[in-house]
Amino acid sequence: MRSIRDLDTVELIIDAQGLLDSIRGPERVVDAGTLRALQQSGNYVVGLFDGDGDEERMIGASIAFFGEPGRRAMHSHITALVPEYRGRGWGRELKEHQRQWAFSRDVGRITWTFDPLVARNAHFFLTVLGARATGYSVNVYGIFGGGDAGDESDRLDVEWALADIARPPAAETVVETLAIPADIEGLRESDPAAAHEWRLRLRTEMEALLGRGLRLAGFDVERGYLFTA
User: What is the pLDDT of residues 19-46, one digit of tens each?
Assistant: First the structure.
């Protein structure tokens, strides 16, 4: 049995911190005290559970907090699943729960950032969810371990307009494409230098395309990022 519910006890908060640490490595994404403060102040702090009773296990978590009041927005800090549960549609279930939670509180948009070299996330966020890329930022968090494995932390900024889901661009409107590796995470383990070269290459080409006034309008698993005029 699967369920999503608020992390409303200290025990659940500590479990969530442990889960996120196990996924992201030694550089902690968020500590238990901050999680508790976010939860107690009415923000979005939930866990995804699998199993029943004593066999129940937390397999995912999602944390978001309210943004500028005038924009009716939230910022999604992290949504993560343990690796063996990915590819089952449960990440989408978590994001849909976040979407409905936001709707019920008069929030119209959710923002977040992600590593543009991670193809599975680009596909999920831009194609499956229909979020829109709004900007590209260089080395946002500095160099740290975990998800970037010691590389510089460039990010794509995205916005999910909850009542206006983006659609992939029509084929005839795509004027440029920008490919990325199918598995940058595996490459970071096997050849960190090559992975870093991809970081620099993507940064240079992304900034050049955006500098020409093109719009990053979607992602295709075969061709990479899709740009329109």
Answer: 999 887 766 788 999 999 999 999 999 9
Alpha-helical regions (H) of 118-191: 119-122, 184-190
Tell me the C-alpha distance between 134 and 46, whole Å. Answer: 26
What percentage of the chain's residues is helix, strand, coil (to nearest 5)?
40, 30, 30
Encoded tokens for 30: 């968020």
Taking CB atoms within 8 Å and a gap of at least 24, the contacts of 211-215 are: 214/175, 214/176
Q: Measure the CA–CA gap between 10 and 33, rounded to whole angstroms.
A: 9
Closest CA to 63 of 26, 90, 101: 101
Provide the H-helix boundaries in 55-126: 90-103, 119-122
Residue among 84, 193, 207 at smallest CA distance from 139: 207
Q: What is the pLDDT of residues 120-152, one digit of tens each?
A: 999 999 999 999 999 999 988 876 554 565 678
- For residues 78 and 63, is the Cβ–Cβ distance under 8 A? yes
Q: Are strands 73-81 and 109-114 parallel, antiparallel or unpaired?
A: parallel
What is the percent of the chain where pLDDT is above 70? 95
Q: Whole-angstrom Cα distance, residue 182 to residue 188?
A: 12
Query: What residues are paired with 63 via a beta bridge?
Result: 45, 78
Could you list the beta-strand ranges (E) of the chain: 2-6, 44-50, 57-66, 73-81, 109-114, 132-137, 155-161, 174-178, 215-220, 224-228
Q: Which tens digit of pLDDT belongs to each residue from 167-191?
A: 999 999 999 999 999 999 899 889 9
